[in-house]
Amino acid sequence: MDTGAMGAREEILGRIRAAVKGAPDVEIPRDYRTSVTVADPVGLFAERLDDYRAIVHVVPAADVDAKVAELTEGKRMVVPGERAWTRDELAAADGVVTGCAIAIAETGTIVLDTRQGERAQTLLPDYHLCLVRADQIVGGVPDAVARLDPARPLTWISGPSATSDIELNRVEGVHGPRTLEVIIST
Questions:
Q1: Would residue 12 count as lying in a domain?
Q2: Are 16 and 8 in contact (CB under 8 A)?
Q3: Which residue range is the domain that position 81 belongs to?
Q4: Total number of domains in the chain
Q5: Tens-place pLDDT, residues 1-16
Q6: Between 20 and 30 A from 2 (CA), which of 18, 66, 74, 137?
Q7: pLDDT in tens, 109-168
Q8: How far, in Å, CA of 95 to CA of 180, rounded?
């Protein structure tokens, strides 16, 4: 930060400190929701993913390997952490396969807990296949935050990458995978 900006910052903060000097302390209520109860987390999570135009498969845990093989047959897939992938390899890949740290039923959000440098591996390929175990699905955001490590790089995904232009025309795949496919194992 340049000296002028730093001086302006200090001047503004000094004015604020002077304005509140002697003001009584105010108690701020912290009665936030800390847990969300959902009757059918798997069903609600799958419904929310479908709302986001993700492709969802709910399968028994014993059938996950066969489903992954079926969905990735003949495709060049990236697996983060498997090895260091170059940008050219990522660009040439058909997709990426990941697990997740947590999934949120209420919002249909998947949270990836990646090591530094792996984020591009989940954002560059056009197709993302994510494996989610039923025991990783929590009711709401407060439940997820309580279980996540805030020191880790986190990527929060709610459906395929999408944006809308000024006329609200939806365009998918602009800032990440165009297709999100999720296998939920029960």
A1: no
A2: no
A3: 32-185
A4: 1
A5: 555 667 889 999 999 9
A6: 18
A7: 999 987 656 777 887 888 999 999 999 999 999 999 999 998 888 989 987 777 777 887
A8: 10
Q: Residue 129 forms beta bridges with which residues?
A: 97, 181
> Which phi and psi angles does 164 have, rounded to 5°?
-125, 145
Output the six-digit token pair for 142.
């407060």
Start-end of H helices in the chain: 3-20, 41-51, 64-72, 87-92, 119-123, 141-147
**Residue 132 resides in a domain:** yes
Alpha-carbon span 175 to 12, nearest angstrom: 37
Half-sphere exposure of 167 (CA within 13 A, CB side): 2
We report the CATH number of the domain holding residue 141 as: 3.40.50.10420
Neighbours of 82 (CB within 10 A): 11
The Cα 76–Cα 67 span in angstroms is: 16
